[in-house]
């Protein structure tokens, strides 16, 4: 039962993310074009360094995501190939996933073809999950990098007016461009959330049930004295739970960074030398400060907000749901 539920959840996640990416393909293509434009039009060295630093962080997270998923799959592949070798000459041969088929799966080459198609399907689902998760996270982190650059650009602009390097009319013109750029970044973050909010809601439900079942199975294997504990099975369950948590951390880290950097714009306005500006010019800065009081978020179904706090709460829920004595977890 646990294996069937895990397989159904895994397939549901991959299918929903694949459908959402295909459905919003044109919108996502525009976002990727904006990322390319930002890299090609950036002229300042410090801007590119900031973007490069954030991009490297996203690449490292993506690499870890692929490593955890592919490591789990390779171990899964080894176990199933071992099963295939042992069952090849048996009268009743088992598949990777046990379902009712409209043909005789025990007959060759039906058994072999079905077995390896199921393995390829598992690999494809893993690649879909890793690719979509990496895409969402990298897009969010790019918005974070642009928010950091925007705050530094604003500080430089205020510094120039305070030292009278530019005129008030030029200051208003450049400030209007900064505000417009800020609005574009806000729209980009909201577009990402709109595209994947429903899918991430499915992700949270599926991942929660999946982790509950998997950790419960591990708990039962460890506590049941009569259970025949398989090292391969325990290793796979641990790797599988780690992979699910890695994907969840991927979202939570990117969303936490987006929330933090969107709020930091208001601090950038406050910390610049606005007190050296004429009163009418200093008042114009309030537009960005007021807008930055509403943080940018990545949500699951528009009511659950991804953050590192939610990641910790998710861990606590999994531990509490599998406590053997039913005590409260604080």
TrEMBL record:
Gene Ontology biological-process annotations: signal transduction
Keyword presence, Flavoprotein: no
InterPro entries: 7tm6_olfct_rcpt
Principal subcellular localisation of the protein: membrane
Topology of this chain in the membrane: Multi-pass membrane protein
Compartments, as annotated in UniProt: Membrane
Membrane-spanning intervals of the chain: 61-79, 115-141, 195-219, 231-252
Name assigned to this protein: Odorant receptor 63a-like
Domain of life: Eukaryota
One Gene Ontology CC term in the entry: plasma membrane
Keywords from the UniProt entry: Membrane, Olfaction, Receptor, Sensory transduction, Transducer, Transmembrane, Transmembrane helix
GO function terms (MF aspect): odorant binding; olfactory receptor activity
KW Signal (keyword) present: no
